[in-house]
């Protein structure tokens, strides 16, 4: 178990180091040739982009959406933009704020052309309709000077939805969505035997009579087909996996091998940038094993850390089995335990 702890600690440190590298890179000066705004946030790539950095706790932000955005002159101009409202307390809002904003004041407005070059910036809220209209108009005029007016890309009804209270889901276009993926991973498995007795003497006696004990670590692998549902910072994931299990007898180096098909069900929560924590359960059925395994069904608790840089994801964690593989009538018990590292690729 001490070896497992060292390996798990190493994985956690690697994930934190990778997160620190990404954070540092996000704070570098803006590269005008790089398109930082994800294309899934853009309705029409030929129209300009208006980024509004906001927050749920920001009263001036709410006032701008509920009052200023409703004014006729303003709504006519907003309808010509790819309007993207970004909550600075969530991704991609926090990432884009570091790139485009000089400070953390909200609301903060940035006008981009279709190549995502910065044209105009405006910080803070305003009660001056003409001032805000001039700001929006100047962005459009600079994009297409002397050309016909930029066409609307949203209707007034759609704009009402975009500037409503549920702006996070409506405007960012990071709506809840399903994704499919495939994964492959490596396992360190162990299946230690122990006595089921409550009495120390009987447990010691049982341990002395054990002919085998697969408490050693055995290398294994897994493949999986994944289905995930993403909503803001939370991800629900399930699928079908095929994996090896078992352990190694440290006395004679004999391996116990078993093969399972399983259905994991996990819930992931964002904790910092792309770093997520996950917990879940897994139901498994043994396809192949030795005669000592009386229970073909198994279930386990899963805990893991993930570096989720969609469409790629790297995860590492621990799964502990609940079921006694040796059966209810055995005086001994043995449970599947795995330390795993998985690499996954997702596509819509």
- CATH topology label of the largest domain: Porin
Query: What is the 3D shape?
Result: rod-shaped
Number of E-type strands: 14
CATH class of the largest domain: Mainly Beta
Low-confidence region ranges: 21-33, 145-150, 166-175
Mean pLDDT, rounded to whole units?
79
Rg from Cα:
27 Å
Largest sheet: 8 strands, antiparallel, barrel
CATH architecture descriptor of the largest domain: Beta Barrel
Q: What's the number of domains?
A: 2
Strand arrangement, major sheet: 5-7-8-9-10-11-12-14
Question: Approximately how much beta-strand content do the residues carry?
Answer: 35-45%
Sketch the topology as an H/E string, one letter per element.
Answer: HEHHEHEEHHHEEHEEEEEEEE
Distance between the termini: 39 Å
Number of helices: 8
Percent in helix: 10-25%
Structural class: alpha+beta
